[in-house]
Amino acid sequence: GVSVVTALRAMDNDVPVCVLSARSSVDDRVAGLEAGADDYLVKPFVLAELVARVKALLRRRGATATSSSETITVGPLEVDIPGRRARVNGVDVDLTKREFDLLAVLAEHKTAVLSRAQLLELVWGYDFAADTNVVDVFIGYLRRKLEANGGPRLLHTVRGVGFVLRMQ
Fold it and tell me: Taking a C-beta distance cutoff of 8 angstroms, is the pair 99, 143 a contact?
């Protein structure tokens, strides 16, 4: 746990980290947090608490991601969050409200893989509706629109995990 967090932070990786550990002493928790973890949860734990902590991490991450820049750039894609505009190679991409919301969340967490459950919560406000394919459908809509006119593949599926916005 601590060694992984230390290695991530040594590489200037600012991905949110929640340590899940059976080690429950105050010294262990302090060591994990001082190594760079954003949160530390001791096993056994209730799933609802883990979900709440992950949501809090993502909220904090989203709040800081846009504070440094109003426009997020991923390769030829520019996402203007306050202006609710997306451009690929300087050309506006016509997106619905929900498509833009999904793109904005992915852009705010660029290079981080977000699960379907995370996207459902952050974009639609649903909690773990496992029987819906709405995320997959909207990912398809976004891909088609972003790749129209020869745009590169920016929206990637990480099998068994989720989706990420990044250049190859």
Answer: no
Please give the DSSP secondary-structure letter assigned to residue 151.
Answer: P
CB count in 10 Å sphere of residue 1: 17
- For residue 18, list its beta bridge partners: 39
List per-block mean pLDDT (blocks of 10 residues) for the chain, which spans 168 residues: 82 81 89 87 85 80 54 91 91 93 91 88 70 88 90 90 89
| CB-side neighbour CA atoms (13 Å) of 142 | 28
Residues 146 and 91 sit within 8 Å (Cβ to Cβ):
no
Cα–Cα distance between 23 and 165 in angstroms, integer?
A: 35
> What is the residue extent of each domain of the chain?
2-64, 67-165
Architecture in CATH for domain 67-165: Orthogonal Bundle (1.10)
